[in-house]
Amino acid sequence: MSREPKTFEAAITADDFSSSDYCGTSYAAKLLGLSVATVQSLVEKGEIEAWKTLGGHRRIALHSINAYLAKNSPQLSRADTNPKHRLRVLIVEDDEITCELYRAYFDEWDLPVDCTWMPSALEALMDIASMRPDLLITDLSMPGVDGIEMLKALKRNQQLTDMQIVVISGLPLEAITERGGLPAHAHLQKKPVNFDWLQGYVTALVTANAKWRQ
User: Are 106 and 153 in contact (CB under 8 A)?
Assistant: First the structure.
């Protein structure tokens, strides 16, 4: 008998809720040594605890990952679920080909990065407060609510003041400035994505993140 993840509202209103206690499906698959599809199946069966964000993204309870390993793979080491050892990244990009490139490169780098991909700024605005990523990587030109509007909205959220922002866009700087510009601490990179630069930047953040959370 399958069981859907508990609701976002039930999870985030709990007294002991912490976004550091949960990870995305891709990162959970990496910790368990399973495919994403298998992890999703385990969630639906109720064998791994999870909840769904307002945008429909699964968040996996880290303690349940170790409980599953202890029960089914006792020969394996306990998964490293320490939040200081991973960087939470949210990528907002509506182009599917670009998203696939992000996935391929992040997998190749094999960094302790918990990545979530979202196809729209509106979806990101629904979930970003609960996910509290360490790094936001976003495009600007998107249908509906675009990246500039999203960043303006995020500036008003005091819980996200420490979040690093990388904007990767094909828009000319003049057009961005006419719309009010970007947050002062945002890094602007021109499309196409320079993955060598991005790897260096993410690697530096992983190192700084671990030191900061010691």
Answer: no
Those residues with Cβ within 8 angstroms of residue 170's Cβ, 6 or more apart along the chain or in another chain: 141, 190, 191
Contact 164, 134 (CB under 8 A): yes
If asked whether residues 95 and 164 sit together in one domain, one would say yes
Contact 117, 102 (CB under 8 A): yes
Q: Name the stretches of the chain with pLDDT < 50.
A: 1-2
Give the pLDDT of residue 188: 96
Instruction: Please count the structural domains in the chain.
Output: 2
Statement to judge: residues 43 and 118 lie in one domain:
no
Closest CA relative to residue 151, chosen from 143, 89, 160, 175: 160
Q: What's this model's pTM, rounded to 2 decimal places? A: 0.87
